[in-house]
Amino acid sequence: MKLYYHPASTTSRPLMMFIADNGIDAELKLVDLFTGEHMGEAYGAVNPSRLVPVLEDGDFRLTESSAILKYLADKIDSPMYPKGLRERARVNEMMDWINTQLCRDLAYGTVYSQIFPFHKRPGDEAQRVTVEWGRERAKTWMRVLDEKLLGTDKPFLCGREITIADYYGASFVHLAEVIGSDLSAYPNVKRWLDGMKKRSTWDKVYEAINGFASQLPKGQLATV
């Protein structure tokens, strides 16, 4: 198998960590997003959307991080993607919620628009409105995650056991820390994310994005 990825890609990190945690035999093929390699014709032939990640398993090619994570979990028969109808539906529900609610407003609305030049809006007012709109909505989703979806009694997103939803969600929630949020307003989220950080593969997988975050201007970004 081959995974096309980049460590700065929020959707690549869950796959990198799941592969590392489970000793999956996969070649990691770096696609340099910062030099625009993904926009070239060669990579366009791999993924016409010109995004990472992409998984190749023989003659089978799969895009979209959530779908790849589920495929990998099924391929190794991982209990992290449970077989029970309702248990699996709960994992799917949580991953869809992260991908539609949290990703849209925290990742694209609040974080990427501040830290990646190609996501910034033309004009100061357009940029201000974009960030403020995303930030307020992201704060709403973070409160939902903290108070309703996690609460005080769940160690993981879907209950007592870790699932692929935790791998997926941790990468997006961690973006709040990338821009300087301390998560003190969301104690249950912080507890859960701190638990994910204790996994032995976390530091290596998140090394690149944390290094990037350390170079961002301190106290100058809108946080959640």
CATH class of the largest domain: Mainly Alpha
How many helix segments?
9
CATH architecture label of the largest domain: Up-down Bundle
CATH topology name of the largest domain? Glutathione S-transferase Yfyf (Class Pi), Chain A, domain 2
- What summary fits the major beta sheet? 4 strands, mixed
Rounded to an integer in angstroms, the radius of gyration calculated over CA atoms is 17 Å
Report the helical percentage. Answer: 40-55%
**Alpha-carbon distance between the two ends:** 38 Å
Main-sheet strand order equals 2-1-3-4
- Count all strands and give the number: 4
Mean pLDDT: 97
Percent strand equals 5-15%
What does this structure look like?
With 224 residues, the chain is an alpha+beta fold. The chain is 55% helix and 7% strand. The protein has nine helices and four strands, in the order E-H-E-H-E-E-H-H-H-H-H-H-H. Strands 2-1-3-4 form a four-stranded mixed beta sheet, with helices on one face. The longest helix is centred in the middle third of the chain and has 31 residues.
Give the helices and strands, then pairings.
Blueprint: E1 2-5, H1 13-22, E2 27-30, H2 41-46, E3 54-57, E4 60-63, H3 65-75, H4 85-115, H5 124-150, H6 164-178, H7 187-197, H8 202-205, H9 207-214
Parallel strand pairs: 1-2
Antiparallel strand pairs: 1-3, 3-4
Helix pairs in contact: 1-3, 1-6, 4-5, 4-6, 5-7
